[in-house]
Amino acid sequence: MKKLLVTGASGFLGWHVIHHAMRHWDVYGICLSHPVAISGARILRTDISRYPDLKKCFLDIMPDAVIHTAAISDPNVCEQTPAQTSVINTQASIHLAGLCAEADIPCVFTSTDLVFDGTDAPYTEDDTPCPVNHYGEQKVLAESGMKNVYPSTVICRLPLMFGDPGPVAKNYLQSLIRALSEGPPPKLFIDEYRTPISGRSAAHGLMIALQAQPPIIHLGGPTCISRYEFGCLVADVLGVPRSTIISCRQKDIEMPAKRPPDVCLDSHRANAVGFCPRPVREELECLLEVCRH
Fold first, then answer.
1. Are 123 and 179 in contact (CB under 8 A)?
2. Nearest to residue 160, comparing CAs of 217, 211, 225, 103?
3. What is the pLDDT along the chain (293 residues), one digit of tens a residue?
4. Domains and CATH numbers, the chain
5. Which of 249, 202, 242 minimizes the C-alpha distance to 221?
């Protein structure tokens, strides 16, 4: 089988991509701070922020394709430490695109819906990015920088994701379930809208993008809902009263990073090539049923 290199192997998305890709690829994953063992894949410890280390790892593996999921994705962390986080989110991404260009292999980059300012949703691939925080800015710079050094780079913009976090990663869903079950009551925004998908659906979409090779594609879910509405669906599936959730607005909670109000993605182009994630409630029911067993 051909070799697929997945960065961010121990992260939420990378972990899902590796498990999905192993059916058809000889998968190599790289990570650094949270080493993980995944049966059937070869996981290497590499600091992608150091170009010599990244290049050596790349040349040792000689992959036939790359899916780049590694990132520091917490907007608040990026807002507080922009210089440090840009090394991973922007510079390392551009370096990786350059290596893929030299090898003439497919390069799929995972970007975010937070490249938009949230004032004109739903967003298509033709809309111009206008981020409101450093994380979004870093992803925009990575998108343009990677395209500059390797025009064939595939840009995949992803929304809020949920699901099994794997052995070491963290995920929004798990903290929400814990808060609903044990307290304190979660405070969820009624004025922040996304098109969430499960990690499993996101991995499937990335593999479709790897095959189809579009210049840029949105991999959003079928429903645009608020954080509060998402929490209500989780509560329903858990059998917990919705009254357990406290509704609030973005202005009610002070955060380092500004959040756009509505970054719902229009994913018709992805749907046309086979990306059809299930509704959020169905995904949640399936995930929580697996957890119960």
1. no
2. 225
3. 899 999 999 999 999 999 999 999 999 999 998 778 899 999 999 999 999 999 999 999 999 999 999 999 999 999 999 999 999 999 999 999 999 999 999 999 999 999 999 999 999 999 999 999 999 999 999 999 999 999 999 999 999 999 988 777 777 888 899 999 898 999 999 999 999 999 999 999 999 999 999 999 999 999 999 999 999 999 999 999 999 999 999 999 999 999 999 999 999 999 999 999 999 999 999 887 765 54
4. 3-161+198-218 (3.40.50.720), 171-194+223-264+278-292 (3.90.25.10)
5. 202
Question: Per the omega criterion (within 30 degrees of 0), is the bond before 184 cis?
Answer: yes
Mapped onto helix, strand or coil, the DSSP state of residue 262 is strand
Helix axes 92-103, 51-61, angle to 10 degrees: 30
* pTM for the whole structure: 0.96
